[in-house]
Design brief:
- This protein has one domain: Jelly Rolls (Sandwich).
- The radius of gyration is 17 Å and the shape is globular.
- The longest helix has 26 residues.
- With 149 residues, the protein is α+β, with helices and mostly antiparallel strands.
- A hairpin with a 2-residue loop joins strand 9 and strand 10.
Length: 149
């Protein structure tokens, strides 16, 4: 378990990562990528229990994005060999991980489909709906608004 302060970079895009499973134990992290044009793409924040940096465990070991602590947080890491031993003893761990990654693939599919086939106003409405569902809303004098994270 390693603590990070708000705003601290956990790792940069293209960093070489040790063969580990990375998960958010507390707090929230931001996942972002910078295009060659300089435009930053921010992916949905990840919170407690979410796995990230899959290429470290399952791929080429290169960070696909920059990971920043959005709040004070703790990151749990599990060495690849220790995880494989645990999976051999409890195969349900692997099924849980497959379900998690399947969910991520489904979210990605919906995002790509929306970008290709929907008008910008519809994409914006879906994004607002997503944040209202995941972060909640609050009532202010001006009306209903998304909660700040």
């Amino acid at each position: 378990m390693k603590p990070y302060g708000k705003g601290e970079i956990i790792f940069h895009k293209s960093d070489s990562l040790p063969a580990k499973l990375y998960a958010v134990a507390s707090g929230v992290i931001k996942v972002s990528k910078i295009a060659t044009t300089g435009k930053e793409t921010i992916l949905p924040n990840l919170g407690i229990g979410e796995i990230f940096a899959a290429p470290a465990l399952l791929g080429n070991g290169i960070s696909p994005a920059t990971i920043t602590a959005e709040s004070d947080c703790e990151i749990l890491t599990v060495e690849r060999d220790a995880l494989l031993t645990a999976i051999q003893q409890k195969p349900d761990i692997a099924l849980g991980m497959l379900a998690f990654f399947n969910n991520r693939i489904q979210q990605l599919h919906e995002t790509v489909h929306g970008l290709v086939s929907e008008r910008a106003i519809i994409r914006l409405a879906r994004l607002i709906q997503y944040f209202a569902t995941t972060s909640g809303t609050e009532t202010k004098a001006e009306g209903e608004r998304l909660k700040e994270s």
